[in-house]
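Sequence decides. Our protein:
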Amino acid sequence: MAHPHNASTSQINNENLGQYYDVIVFCHYRWQFVYQRPQHIIGRLATNLKVLFIEEPLLNPDSNRSGNLIVMNDNLHILQPNVQNIESIAHIIPEYVTNKSVPVGWFYSPSFSPLLKHINFQTVIYDCMEEPSLIKGDSKDAINQEKYLMSRADIIFTNGRSLYESKKQYHSNVHLFLGSVDKSHFSKASNWNTVPDDIAHIQSPIVGYYGIIDERIDFSLLHETALKLPNVSFVMIGPLMADVQNLPKKTNIHYLDMKSYDEMPHYLKAFDIAMMPFVVSDATKYISPAKTLEYMAAGKPIISTKTGDVVDYRICVNVIETAEEFCNAITFLLDRMDRLSLEMEYYSILKKTSWDAVTHKMESMIRTFSKGNA
């Protein structure tokens, strides 16, 4: 199966942009930012369907073009709208989409819900990744937008058990699809003999994290643990979205830049332990980090705070609450971990999941629903 992160991209500059699309996706995450659930699922949908993936507007007043269309491959196009706001996207859709009725409208964010008044979708999907009421800013607007989206949605998918329990109270067709993993990709971490230069010079043992570094990270926990274990290196890989002033600054805490999806197994190779040091709060109540499975596929022991749906994997994830527990877990895993037992537990979990299987089941549900309403 083709994976779009490996595809070469090009931009369309000609005026004849209009094409027929089977699916239009609206997403608040940018395709070429952190590679996560939307890219995994939509990239696979685009194997058989023609997909237009529309990001949030990125206004460039110096350009007279209505948007930037990026071709990932023949079946997957990314549109970066050059408009003032989300509702204005409706005015430029006819330039890019020739069909008056679109088979599937796929929403990752309720903020795009006003477009439902302007575009005719035969089937509306809401793939819910987070709780809108906890999003920074005007949560009241987000809640109302989600209520409207759910009232129009035919099928709702959620990526976590907590979100599933929440949304099924308001809709009769909600389905849980936990985050999955590309096992063959992340298992490469076990095969390479070398690691990238910017992590190769960091003293081992390394306890590492990759992902967005924002207010959901428990910086106090990280700082206190690093203070207690000065001979352990803590490596944070990813884009800095938090106030730099809040970042703990110890000689054994290292911040590396964002890395591509293809690079991640190389960096995982250097980890002795993988961590998810999320703060325990409303902001992480519904979090369902796919990196849990990615760490497993790389064969790394895992330490996590007790957030979101990580407890689903408690049998093989070291769940901690304090810096003292964090230190004890690190010491135990470095000194006395039973790696064979851990690998067997990982195998029993990983054999049951794959992004290919998740996408296939989603497609089957959509086809069944469409036929039943034809």
Summary: Residues 355-372 form the longest helix (18 residues).
